[in-house]
Amino acid sequence: MRVLITGGAGYIGTELAYRLADRSDIGQVIVYDNLSRGNYNLFIGVRKFPRDKVTFINGDLLDSRKLRKSLNDIDVVYHLGAKVTKPFSDHNPHLLEQVNHWGTAEIVYAVEESNVSRFIYVSSSAIYGSSDQEVGVGTPPEPSTYYGISKLRGEEHVVRLQQKMPAYILRTANVYGYSKSMRFDARLNRFMFEAASGQIITVNGSGTQARAYIHIDDTTDCLEAMLTTDLKPDTYDLTARNLTIQEIVDGVKTVFPETEILFINQHVKPWELRVKPDARLSGCFSLEDGTFLEEIKEFKKQFTLDFHD
Question: So what's the architecture of 2-175+213-241 in CATH?
Answer without folding.
Answer: 3-Layer(aba) Sandwich (3.40)
